[in-house]
Amino acid sequence: MFLWRFAHNSLPNRVNLKRRKVNTESSCPICKRFDEDYGHLFFKCKTVKAWWQVMGLDHIRNEMASCQSGREVMQQVWKLEPGVQTKIITFLWRWWTARNKANSGERVITVGELCHSVEYHYHNFQKLTKPERGNAMGGTVKWKPPVHETYKLNIDASFLASSGKGWWGFVVRDQDGQFLEEGGGGGHIFRTSSALHAEAIAVWQGLERAAALGMPRVVLETDATILGKVLSST
């Protein structure tokens, strides 16, 4: 629904409301400096520009800032890689939500809070769109043992947004697929900020156990795409 309204220029930003004869100010509720049209709200406001820069997508923002309509913006989005598409769409939606809160008198969200919100929802969307495990013949993908003298640590976690609670678990197996004594664990997190947070704690707990058991070489396996990219980066 958000994307449809975005593409058809029907979101009730202040310029649109003015155009429909609603008695309201047209200035941006975030920066208070310029009229709040589509271009300013999503691509030119100083707060929104900071987010694009933090996420390394400022070059895309520059291209979209020159678009004449929401539909033209979406045409640009569909030309991007699927992962980038999802992140941009997630951002546009979360930024609109943050803007509405500021418009109703709540405080303006910080860049860090906005990035956290985008990453949390993006991570969940990635999980929802991930294809079911299986091969072309319809069979399930089996767990693969690690190489000689290496252990494999599998981790997983869950997160309940309504309560902020999370759960984590891990299991360690050797090259023969044997579960090691004391090679597993799990727990409850009373204050969790996101699914990514819970997954990170699962990794931390699992690696600590592996270190305590004296394992020199460990392969970490997780279905958390963002966490995997972070851990394998510099």
Provide an overview of this structure.
Pfam families: RVT_3, zf-RVT. By secondary structure, the protein is α+β, with helices and mostly antiparallel strands. The protein folds into two domains: about 130 residues, no CATH class; about 80 residues, 2-Layer Sandwich (Nucleotidyltransferase, domain 5). The two termini are about 40 Å apart.
Task: Describe, in short, the structure shown.
The protein has about 230 residues and is of the alpha+beta class. It is built from ten helices and four strands; from the N terminus they run H-H-H-H-H-H-H-H-E-E-E-H-E-H.
List keywords for this structure.
234 residues, alpha+beta, Nucleotidyltransferase, domain 5, 2 domains, 4 strands, 47% helix, RNA-DNA hybrid ribonuclease activity, RNase_H-like_EbsB-rel, RNaseH-like_sf, nucleic acid binding, RNase_H-like_dom_plant
Largest sheet data: 4 strands, mixed
Q: What class, by secondary structure content?
A: alpha+beta
| Number of discrete domains | 2
Instruction: Tell me the series of helices and strands, N- to C-terminal.
Output: HHHHHHHHEEEHEH
Total helix count?
10
Q: Numbering strands along the chain, what is their spatial order in the largest sheet?
A: 3-2-1-4
Enumerate the spans where pLDDT stays under 50 for 5 or more consecutive residues. Answer: none
Question: Which shape, going by the Cα principal axes?
Answer: elongated
Q: Terminal Cα separation, in Å?
A: 38 Å
CA-based gyration radius: 22 Å
Estimate what percentage of residues fall within beta strands.
5-15%
Domain RNase H type-1: 154-229
GO molecular function, one term: nucleic acid binding
InterPro entries: RNase_H-like_dom_plant, RNase_H-like_EbsB-rel, RNaseH-like_sf, RNaseH_domain, RNaseH_sf, RVT-Znf
Pfam families: RVT_3, zf-RVT
